Amino acid sequence: MDHFHYRDGEMFAEDVAIAQIAAEVGTPVYVYSASTFRRHARVFREGLSALPRVHLAYAIKANPNVAVLRVLADEGYGADVVSVGEMRRALAAGMKPQDIVFSGVGKTRAELAAALEAGIGQFNLELEEEGVVLAALAHERGLTAPAVIRVNPDVDAGTHAKISTGRKENKFGVPIDQAPGMFDRLAGLPGLDLRGVACHIGSQLGDLAPLEAAYARIGELVAELRAAGHGISRVDLGGGLGVPYKPGDVMPEPAAYGAMVARVTQGWDVELMFEPGRVIAGNAGVLVTEVVWVKPGVANPYVIVDAAMNDLARPALYDAYHDFVAVRPNGEKMTANIAGPVCETGDTFAMNREIDKVVSGDLAIFRTAGAYGATMASTYNSRPLVPEVLVEGERYAVVADRIAAETILSAERVPDWLQK
Ligand SMILES: *Cc1c(COP(=O)(O)O)cnc(C)c1O
């Protein structure tokens, strides 16, 4: 459920006409619905309401805009961050340090130190050496680092290979059979408070079965660690729930997910941490674009839009599908390819797709662009960095400026020896 809908034949974001935003801010532009973010945050929380102790850490990488983070902080969410840059955003949005989880396979020593000094609530360790270094950094500062070990449960998430993280050959986590030995060696280190384990097996999961299999393995590990005398007070179950991209896609509801978690974690007696990203942000944003040309093609015409792979990378990266609809559809349809202006064949959003008939100058949106959209944007082909707008009810604001190509150019220089 989202708040992008037609009203009298024209696409609105909540109570604001998309065409009005396009006229004022220009295109391409991301438009987010604060009410949709709030709704998803609440539905996800309600899905987990049967569980006794829950901490929600929104995975910032899905959509790190500081206004979006403020909305989610308002909804009682903390954050899962994967860099100090993301940590600074969470803090800037008003999230409390103790509500922040620091994940990531390549946290640098400088990042670990900065996060310790900020007092963040949990470090998710990816390897034993990281635990040793973190303990020493904490100890020399007179601090204790709260930490869990991220394990790799070796399950196939059944999603796209590039967003699958829980198979043993992936770079993430500690092989689950090595976790008990690592726990034994790290648990006694001064400066480290090792509280439990974490897992995250992948993203855009359309099926609960791989998650259930992973969580069952985590349950066995928790029992084994307790039998070895370790106190386990936290288990972090990661994120990964999928969202519908295509009309007709059916994804697990947060309530079904919560029921599965309640069943599998029965009797664990821990605080459960969750790191939802896409399920909160995906359908809360669209990318608004203008049709530049309709270019005749061999089989179908190419609808060339002013948004490109540098603004929305998912189709080029993962062959992802984004629904494309006209802002003012006239009722007619056409079969077309949709592509951006960037000089890459991969800069193609769809091939042979039946879409609303559009002509040069028409506005359209790519739906479900709220997660892994603007955050992956670049300035490839010296295009400006795409701006972002947040709508709530009748109000809207530009929450990230369009960064002009000239501004980016102004950060570059020709060295002395090349000056004429
Ligand atoms: C990306 C990521 C998430 C969020 O994944 P979604 O599929 O967006 O829910 C959660 N935890 C970790 C460690 C991640 O890397």
Question: What is the rounded Rg?
Answer: 23 Å
Instruction: Give the second-level CATH assignment, the architecture of the largest domain.
Output: Alpha-Beta Barrel
Q: What is the CATH superfamily classification of the largest domain? A: Alanine racemase
Structure class:
alpha/beta
Bound molecules: pyridoxal-5'-phosphate
Shape estimate: globular
The pLDDT mean sits at 97
| Total DSSP helices | 12
Low-pLDDT runs: none
Task: Measure the end-to-end span.
Answer: 59 Å
Using the coordinates shown, work out and report the CATH topology of the largest domain. Answer: TIM Barrel
Tally of separate domains? 2
CATH class (first level) name of the largest domain: Alpha Beta
Enzyme class: lyase
Catalytic activity: meso-2,6-diaminopimelate + H(+) = L-lysine + CO2
InterPro entries: Ala_racemase/Decarboxylase_C (IPR009006), DAP_deCOOHase_LysA (IPR002986), De-COase2_C (IPR022643), De-COase2_N (IPR022644), De-COase2_pyr-phos_BS (IPR022653), Orn/DAP/Arg_de-COase (IPR000183), PLP-binding_barrel (IPR029066)
Cofactor: pyridoxal 5'-phosphate
